[in-house]
Amino acid sequence: MKTVTLDYKSQAQLLEFIQDNNIQDTNYLLVQVFTAMNNEEDINNLRTEILEQLPNAKIIGATTCGEISNEGSISNSTVISFSTFEKTVVETKLLDYRESSFVTGQSIIKSFENTQNEELKLIITFSDGLNTNGEEYLAGISSINEEIVISGGMAGDNATFTTTYIFNEVSISSHGAVAAALFSDDLNVYTNYSFNWETIGKKHIVEKSDKNRVYRIGGMTTVEFYKYYLGNDMDRLLPAIGIEFPLVMTRGNVKVARAVLIKHDDGSLSFAGNIPEGSEIQFGHGSVQMIIHKGLDNVKNLLAQPIESIFIYSCMARRALLQEDVNLELLPLREIAPISGFFTYGEFYHNCTKGQCANQLLNETMTILAISESKDITNHINPNVFSHNPPEVDDIGLHRTQALSILIERTTKELESLNNDLESRVTSEVEKNIEKDNMLQMIQAQAQLGDMIEMILHQWRQPLSAISTAISSTQVYKMSGILKDDMLDKTLIDVMRYVEHLNDTVEDFRDLFKAEVNFTNILPTVLIQKSLTILYPLLKIHGIKVESEFESDEIVLIPINLMMQVIINIVKNAIDILIERKIENPIVKFKTYVKKERLIIKIMDNAGGIPEDILPYIFNKKFTTKSDTHGTGIGLDMSKNIVENKVGGKLTANNVGEWAVFNIKIPRKSI
């Protein structure tokens, strides 16, 4: 077999290309068309031009989010791949179906004669990108014959998410699928894929979904969920930005991503494939280094195969992440055989493991289909392709994107490590303290651990989202040709400011969780600010205003981590009661002043005060007004123990009108 590829410009160029490459009009000719022309008239005109020269050719095509030719990634083009076989018969079918994606899959495979024929080695298929559930479509095909290798993907429309098209030599449709079946005893088929998307942040549970439409995650609508973790701009940027931040699930030992395709008025989102209720999901983000290195691994694997043509169906998110540097992943493949393909809204992949075969819908991946009618392995490649430092990597844009990927990857791992360390410490302390009171303290620590980790993740969410948005915006300006030096400089300054904020936040959490008790000089205002930094997400979410009145800000000598725990515990209790009582204008207020050689820190809230009948008991170990799910009542006792036994101060509480007031009295001393 032989494959040649044209970056189509005109009818005259097409005719000249066919003649120069001696492309013969036979039933053994498969033409794949990948086009940015997203309207029926242009597609029909192109199809007519091809059939005028090659009336017996079998054509399948799709609209795209970018095209792939032997030159690598290109845009706003039409790539035509001509594959001439010697021993392989090609049939094509198109099904315009608008009801069930599963039935579409069943119907399209049934439309081929001899579906169970052993000579049927491969089906290359493209579905529309917006109306078809790719996972259900593949399940329909597999229900008829799960052994057939399926490759291809879901059509795109340059990230406008309005209309996509699929077509063959007979017709065109914006609903349904097109497929080419390849029959041959001599056809060798090899498939592979790269994923390399990192998961970010905590795991969340999908609470309500219907196949590929997800309604609620973590107590929020799915749109609210994206806005909460990625910023309020998601209302405007979804669904386009959603394909760059997919939801990632684990199926078996494989991470599977699902990209957003449609935003609905009820706050739900439709994804390219199913996300079952009860699934544990995390956000994903592309790892640039892993993508490039895995691309070279794919080349090494292909060298062991008999290959004459390579077709690539890759997710548009990879192109959005790497921009022009996506060629670092693509171009090494052309050293083996001619390449062509397109950037999709979802990729079709056939996987066989331990004798079990399945067709899978993937997102965020690059899938590779390599075929040959010869069994000879004659692949040769320049060893420089495997250099760890190809010249292109020196590009500053790639380094910037790599830096973002590394930042996200490593900060996420730091948070996971911090979480694991805290859990380990809590478990260790529980094992050491078998007395009842100490056991109660450890139970309280475990109960509060989840809230603390949630606050840590919230603190990281906004700057990480801001960094991602800044980089994405710069890439958009670059693609649009309007990027100016001052805009780039501003973006870099903003990114550095966010990184500094991340570093400051890490230091605050490290201070809080230090195991040792060291007395250190600190200003009261700094102590309060470090504590509020950790609580800021909860205060912001619930619209709680923080007021301060500092009459004194003299340095005091205290164990910073322990006193932060005291302030966080008192303010967290205030937040809980303000929410529970639904206070219209909730306020937490701080006052500091000096009296009789003691620094006084007052922490107040306007939730109506502490009921007089329970006020005398609030510092008792076993007293609580909360249910079992909200604590054990020992938080304030722990706080009192720290202030009075560790610091040598005094912790009391009283009411002033509608305000509950906690009084922390600290001896005035420093070194």
Could you please describe the fold and organization of this structure?
Helices cover 37% and strands 30% of the residues. The chain has 671 residues and is an alpha+beta fold. β2, α2 (40-53) and β3 (58-63) form a beta-alpha-beta unit. α3 packs across α4 (134-144), α12 crosses α13 (524-541) and α13 (524-541) packs parallel to α14 (560-580). The model is unreliable at 388-394 and 627-634 (pLDDT under 50). The longest helix has 45 residues, at 436-480. It has 15 helices and 33 strands. It folds into four domains: 2-190 and 289-387, no CATH class; 197-286, no CATH class; 395-513, no CATH class; 516-671, 2-Layer Sandwich (Heat Shock Protein 90).
So what's the overall shape? elongated
Distance between the termini: 84 Å
What is the makeup of the main sheet? 8 strands, antiparallel
β-strand number = 33
Beta strand %: 25-35%
List the helices and strands and how they pair.
Elements: E1 2-8, H1 11-20, E2 29-35, H2 40-53, E3 58-63, E4 67-69, E5 72-74, E6 78-84, E7 89-95, H3 101-110, E8 120-127, H4 134-144, E9 149-154, E10 166-168, E11 172-173, E12 177-183, E13 188-194, E14 197-210, E15 213-217, E16 220-221, H5 222-230, H6 234-237, E17 247-251, E18 254-258, E19 260-263, E20 269-271, E21 280-286, H7 288-302, E22 309-315, H8 316-322, H9 327-330, E23 339-344, E24 347-353, E25 356-362, E26 366-372, H10 396-432, H11 436-480, H12 485-513, E27 519-522, H13 524-541, E28 545-550, E29 556-559, H14 560-580, E30 587-595, E31 598-605, H15 635-646, E32 650-656, E33 659-667
Helix pairs in contact: 1-2, 3-4, 10-11, 11-12, 11-13, 12-13, 13-14, 14-15
